[in-house]
Amino acid sequence: MVERIIEAAGYELALVTKVKFAHHTSPGLYPFWVPDRLWRGRLPECFVKVHLDDDTHFRGARRFDLRKRPQRKRMYEMLLHRGPPEEMIDWIDGALFVDLWDELKIPQVIRHAWDPLVELAGDGHIERPWYGLPASPAAPDAITGSRASSQHEPPPRHDDPRPC
């Protein structure tokens, strides 16, 4: 009954990733936090204009337009250096984070602590998605991503290595 009310209002029930953070210290660095997994940010929050008014955590620029890649990059760098878990959850989006990972200017110890999460998130399955049309010979052999399970399976192709 509750599900029908929620659906009628234009929403659906969804599972939310529960993230746990570990506190890390390293000589010469402000203590930092590392999660046990990456998460997807909420829309529109992961693209908002942010004004950080807490001078104790961050130095320098404190206004960011997260729609702009360079400003999102700078915000992520600051959060990795000194951000508390609550602010990381609010402003970091896992997919956007992985996309920026190689460009982030962060201390090696922080990079080393976050590396396994980024590697795991960026290690998606390689498969040919099924969109309901036969694959074209000119189509790429594979794309990175995953597909939702579908009741419709593609027709077998002569070059398909799967058994019939």
Quick structural gist:
With 164 residues, this protein is of the alpha+beta class.
Description:
This protein is of the alpha+beta class and 164 residues long. The chain contains five helices and six strands; from the N terminus they run αββββααααββ. The chain has a two-stranded antiparallel sheet with strand order 1-2. The protein has a two-stranded antiparallel ribbon with strand order 3-4. The protein is globular and about 55 Å long. It starts with a helix and ends in a 20-residue tail after the last strand. The model is unreliable at 139-155 (pLDDT under 50).
Question: In terms of topology, how is this protein built?
Answer:
Elements: H1 2-8, E1 21-24, E2 32-35, E3 49-51, E4 63-65, H2 69-82, H3 85-91, H4 94-100, H5 108-121, E5 126-127, E6 143-144
